[in-house]
Amino acid sequence: MHNLRFAVLALVFGFSTAALAQDMSAEQRAACKADYDKYCTGTMPGGGRIIACLNKQYGQLADGCKKVIDAQKK
């Protein structure tokens, strides 16, 4: 039963994270493009993987990209 709860939570979280990434505007994606190219090239899109990768490098990101990452956390 515990495994089923975990699977359901993981599925719900995965969909909500993917929805956030898809809601990013072209302007928001452009703000993080250089940082993505520098730190996260090769990261498969989907499931919040790109946001998670950028978040790991938060201290190194451009100010515009930091604002995008912060907005995704809300």
Secondary structure blueprint with pairings:
Layout: H1 2-22, H2 26-40, H3 49-56, H4 63-73
Helix pairs in contact: 2-4
**Structural class by sheet pairing and helices:** mainly alpha
Largest sheet: none
Shape: globular
How many E strands? 0
**In DSSP terms, counting alpha (H) and pi (I) runs of 4 or more, how many helices?**
4
Q: Determine the strand fraction and express it as a percent band.
A: under 5%
Give the overall pLDDT as a whole number: 78
What's the gyration radius in Å? 14 Å
Q: Percentage of helical residues?
A: over 70%
Characterize the structure shown.
α2 crosses α4. This protein is an all-alpha fold. The chain is built from 4 helices and no strands. It has one domain. The radius of gyration is 14 Å and the shape is globular.
Concise overview:
This protein is an all-alpha fold and 74 residues long.
What structural keywords apply?
74 residues, mainly alpha, 74% helix, 0% strand
